């Protein structure tokens, strides 16, 4: 994968090459995710995903059982999804075009969705629901992967000369495999990467 990241083939991965690669990998993942989900949610195949289609495909089986065994609050999740869907739906017709559906699934990619990203992040961190983030909530914030955002003992790594060699990348492969550069390891098992 280092050869793919090293766009100019000079044997070094620069900060700019790494940024470009991460952006490329992220956009490809978003595109594939939207295509996969589109097929599962455009139930009537009219080229739009309505809120009702999304809700039925995602929560239909749960709506019959409002108190599921796993204890997860799906009703609350559905309310949150509806709020985000309505924000992504620029024309307000409750039917998302593919672009609007992409904004719904990946709001961090769209400027007009930034408020919802901030609101949802605040809600995720504010565990006691008081509208404020106290020090304990901030320090204990988990990004959903079991990784704490703050207060971890990670070492800061810097590029002394602004370049990484293949050997430097391999030496720190544990950091690389768990990063966006490899799509969190996914790119390493994909045949089209090699």
Describe the structure.
Keywords: Calcium, Chaperone, Endoplasmic reticulum, Glycoprotein, Golgi apparatus, Membrane, Metal-binding, Repeat, Sarcoplasmic reticulum, Secreted, Signal. The chain has nine helices and four strands, in the order αβαβααβαααβαα. It is globular. A two-stranded antiparallel ribbon has the order 1-4. It is 49% helix and 5% strand. By secondary structure, it is mainly α. The longest helix has 27 residues, at 15-41.
Biggest sheet strand order reads 1-4
Q: Proportion of β residues?
A: 5-15%
Q: Uncertain regions: pLDDT < 50 for 5+ in a row?
A: 151-159
Secondary structural class: mainly alpha
* Name of the CATH first level of the largest domain: Mainly Alpha
Named at the architecture level, the CATH assignment of the largest domain is Orthogonal Bundle
CA(first)-CA(last) distance: 6 Å
Helix-residue proportion:
40-55%
Assembly status: single chain
Query: Could you please say which CATH topology of the largest domain applies here?
Result: Recoverin, domain 1
Largest sheet: 2 strands, antiparallel
Subunit structure: Interacts with PCSK6 (immature form including the propeptide); probably involved in the maturation and the secretion of PCSK6.
GO molecular function: calcium ion binding
Domain EF-hand: 1-28, 29-64, 76-111, 113-148
Protein name: Reticulocalbin-3
